[in-house]
Design a protein that fits this description.
alpha/beta, Mannitol-specific EII, Chain A
């Protein structure tokens, strides 16, 4: 599975309008709902926010991966956002976040969900990927960064 098999430029927002983590999550959920990837926007938002209240999804290297599982989508969904200015996600490395990747999947599809989390985490270890994200200006630029750096 490749992130670019699921991610599309229409589910990428750069720059985001939101300026704090919960608003960023809501903005990305709305992006997925608008694209027709989520059938129950409110249920999915609630699921992701409940997960975020339990433990931060700011995993380091400027990345947050808020995620949730609910039966309001057919398969794995991904939205990506780049905030105008770095956002405090209470990340484990205490650094602010400059890339937010929202994942959602049906409750019975754990495998793809875990694979996507691992792939995204691995991408953020790549300095060329982080540089491409830092220099991106459009959804197409972000999408191309994923294309160029996926292995």
């Amino acid at each position: 599975m490749r992130i670019t098999d699921i991610l599309t430029p229409e589910t990428i927002k750069i720059p985001m309008d939101a300026e704090e983590k919960f608003a960023c999550i809501e903005e990305l959920v709305d992006l997925l709902a608008k694209a027709g990837k989520v059938t129950d926007r409110d249920k999915f938002l609630q699921t992701v926010l409940e997960r975020e209240y339990t433990r931060t999804t700011g995993i380091g290297h400027g990345l947050a991966v808020p995620h949730g599982k609910c039966n309001c989508m057919d398969g794995l969904v991904i939205a990506v956002g780049v905030p105008r200015t770095p956002i405090d996600f209470q990340s484990i490395d205490k650094q602010k976040v400059n890339l937010i990747v929202l994942l959602g999947s049906p409750e019975d599809q754990t495998g793809p969900h875990i694979q996507a989390l691992a792939r995204i985490s691995r991408l953020m270890l790549s300095s060329s990927f982080r540089d491409a994200i830092a220099h991106a200006h459009t959804p197409r630029d972000i999408y191309q960064a994923f294309v160029d750096n996926e292995m």
